[in-house]
Design brief:
Blueprint: H1 2-33, E1 34-38, E2 53-57, E3 94-99, E4 102-110, E5 115-119, E6 122-126, H2 131-137, E7 143-146, E8 149-153, E9 182-186, E10 191-195, H3 205-208, E11 211-212, E12 216-225, H4 242-260
Antiparallel strand pairs: 1-2, 2-12, 3-4, 3-12, 4-10, 5-6, 5-9, 6-8, 7-8, 10-11
Length: 261
């Protein structure tokens, strides 16, 4: 009897240990693949608003070496690259970026091989794909010839209406000139040029330089909670993907223009 009781206890312990191991593995998979965070600043307004809660996909551009909870300490400190290297960012994607101990959310404007420059706050993009791609993917009114080559002026401002400029910020010598002008440059391999949607008040590739692929942690799956300064829930933004937010803002923008006519 005693032996049987001991065997039953061991069997129960074994089952419990297996469950704990399975739950631990499941937790680690979820922790590595997904996350929830809060928007801390207005760098991406009006696309993402301060204090909105977002659901993050850490596997969007390859799985990044994760950190311990509430820490910047890497779980695998010897590993400098991503755990997997899969899909690459596309122009227009909103990226979660790690720079040192800080995390940023910025929009990808140019990918490796592209040419980029800025003049008087206007961004000019020449995709590496060439003229045929440019004519097929961008409206003719946005195309301009500079130095014998076709460039796209402000390539995404019609598509992503959350991008905006502050007309009060002028090139009068009181702010960094990088807000207005950057010289033509080509994006190097495994690097990306990113900008804030709130163009005149936050730093981005105009100041830091390009973002390396290994520093891109993931993408935003959707907004899961949004509340304004008066503690009213923004129901029209709840559980929306960024594509749905873009469509919502474009519709509001078009309706606003109709009312002005």
């Amino acid at each position: 009897m005693v032996q049987n009781s001991q065997n039953k206890v061991k069997e129960k312990l074994t089952r419990t240990q297996k469950r704990i191991i399975k739950l631990s593995i499941l937790f680690m998979i979820i922790y590595v693949m997904f996350g929830i965070d809060k928007i801390p600043s207005a760098s991406m307004s009006n696309t993402l608003l301060i204090n909105e809660i977002i659901f993050i996909k850490y596997y969007s551009y390859g799985i990044t070496n994760p950190t311990f909870p509430f820490s910047d300490l890497k779980i695998l400190p010897f590993l400098k690259a991503k755990l997997t290297k899969d899909k690459r960012p596309k122009r227009g994607d909103v990226l979660i970026i790690r720079r040192g101990q800080n995390r940023y959310i910025r929009r990808c404007i140019a990918i490796e091989g592209d040419f980029i420059m800025q003049k008087d706050k206007h961004v000019y993009l020449r995709p590496i794909d060439g003229d045929t791609y440019i004519f097929e993917n961008f409206h003719r009114k946005k195309l301009i010839e500079i130095g014998g080559a076709i460039w796209v002026k402000d390539p995404f401002e019609d598509t992503y209406t959350g991008i905006w400029h502050d007309n009060e910020v002028r090139n009068d010598g009181t702010v960094d000139k990088a807000l207005f002008d950057i010289t033509p440059r080509q994006i190097e391999g495994n690097e990306y040029f990113v900008l804030s949607d709130n163009r005149d008040h936050f730093s981005d590739s105009r100041f830091w330089g390009n973002v390396k692929y290994n520093d891109i942690e993931g993408s935003i799956s959707r907004i899961i909670f949004s509340i304004d300064d008066n503690y009213s829930i923004r129901w029209n933004r709840m559980f929306k993907t960024l594509s749905e937010i873009d469509e919502l803002m474009l519709q509001e923008h078009n309706n606003s223009n109709k009312r002005k006519l």
